[in-house]
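HUMAN:
Just now I want nothing more than another pair of eyes on a protein record. I would be glad if you read both lines and explained how they fit together. I have put the entry right below:
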Amino acid sequence: MSVPPAPPLLLASTSPQRRAILEQLGIPFELATPDYEEHDPPAADVVALVREHAAGKARSVGEPDERPIMGVDTAVHLDGRVYGKPTGPGEAEEMLNALAAHTHDVVSGLCLRTPGWEVVEHEITRVTFRPLTPRDLATYVAAGEWEGRAGAYAIQGLGAALVERVEGDYLNVVGLPAALLVRLLSERFAGVYGFG
């Protein structure tokens, strides 16, 4: 008897990193562009913020059908401040300079929705940057990789050279808390997606 194919997740995101991680994990998915406006007040409670954004993105693409809907949001947090996506190169350099020689938290919220339930959880990964010189900062900012990135860096690209240590789920820093997603799929859809 053949096993029916798993229904694709409906990913409420335009992030190429999230798509790549789902492909890496072998999880079928389809894309939906969320109709949700993020707000990242610097003094916000970062866990509440990313959970709210993840749920808002998942809810913005409509009601779930046979496809579970997934929304994800990621922010960088250091010393009580939330670092979202920089608006320009000057702000990117300020963010990177603040993160240099410190350990910050990368916090992601993940929301899964079906017709019967909704679950929202979060994951935290700790990332330590090495000390950065003005030349390091200028070179990285000039490369443009900071654009559209929480905390102004991409660990899977040139940003790897900024990092000294990662504690926790590396893929969470890339853009999707993969260990959390696999746990939720194994608990809520045992065997359907190849987990649990």
Summary: The chain has a mean pLDDT of 95. The chain has six helices and seven strands. The radius of gyration is 17 Å. Residues 9-188 form a domain with the Maf protein fold (CATH 3.90.950.10).
